[in-house]
Amino acid sequence: MKYDLIVIGSGIVGLGHAWAAALQGLKVAVFETNSRAEGASIRNFGMIWPVGQPAGAARELALRNRELWLQLGKAAGFAVEECGSLFLAHHPDELAVLQEFIDTEASHGLNAELCLPHIVKQMMPAVNTNNLQGGMFSPGELRVTPQTAISMATAYLADTLNVEFYFNSTVVKVASGEILTSANKVWHASKIVIASGAYYESLFPAAYSQECLHICKLQMLLTAPQPIGWKLGPHMASGPSLRHYPAFENCPSMTELRNRISKNMPEFDRFGIHIMASQNENGELILGDSHEYNDDIEPFDKSEINNLIIREIQKILNIPDFSISRTWNGLYAKLPKNMFFVREIRPDVLIVNGFGGNGMSLALAAAETIMQNWNSATTCEINYEPSF
């Protein structure tokens, strides 16, 4: 069996490439080691998050990615909610960063607006108004339930666009024009995309080492379903989250914000904690998260991190049911100072990786761009690496 494109990995990066290729009329196969996608694509908030990307190429890609999620949700039949996002400011330096962001080109394309405390309360009734300085609402963010979206997108690609999926099929070798699975079967394709996230090391260990990727571990929590009718509203991000996103990096007051957190909340820096919340389609709240890198990563989750997240959430939100039904962690690969990377590891074999925590926010548009460039380029060398 020969395909126009073989994709290794069935997460959002792999599905994005399969979708883009299938829409071009190509014959596509996707290979996945597990019985379903089990990596970062299903272990996240379900936030499609243009507000976190810096103005310029990254923001434009994120806004296109937003359009593609709406298209994919409509085609595949899963909900894509245009919920927007609300950054809360409970300290003057947080409000200053938000004001500086709004007043400059840093907010280009977002239609974001600064909100007084009473407007914040109207938009998110659960917010604790003690010391609330205000907030920033951005209407462009979307919400999906990751497991549902990935599952239904997979079914749509298979049933409607005739993409062939081979689950429980571990690829052990990749060469130009062919792959070998652990079942000792050879499959042929004109082009191959390796989109296996943090796990492509086993295929090309030397190339993996040269990339100097950082592996990040995140801890997250899920509450029990909230009472019927209770709504959080937009995605919520607290003031400390501002220091996590490069979109806010050049705001003058960011230095003051960072210094305050470093002095008063050193555990936030030690564990890379920033506070976010989103409500899924079942009424449960997803809470998080933390960021531990490389040698700091342990196989066991830290109760200290979970307790810190819960403590901070309780300070800023009044949630009816705070009982925790589930905790988990996720791993992703990140290339510092780049949105993602594309490498031609063999002729007509691309590695697409390094999205960090931005896979949901960038991958569909990145895949569209890569497939368009690949098919029209006079050379197979594709570089799409806008720097932060």
From TrEMBL:
GO terms for molecular function: sarcosine oxidase activity. It comes from the Bacteria. Residues 4-370 form the FAD dependent oxidoreductase domain. The keyword Flavoprotein applies. Pfam families: DAO. Its EC number is 1.5.3.1. It is an enzyme of class 1 (oxidoreductase). Its cofactor is FAD. InterPro entries: FAD-dep_OxRdtase, FAD-dependent_OxRdtase_HpnW, FAD/NAD-bd_sf. Keywords: Flavoprotein, Oxidoreductase. NCBIfam families: HpnW_proposed (TIGR03364). Belongs to the DadA oxidoreductase family. This is Monomeric sarcosine oxidase. It comes from Gimesia maris.
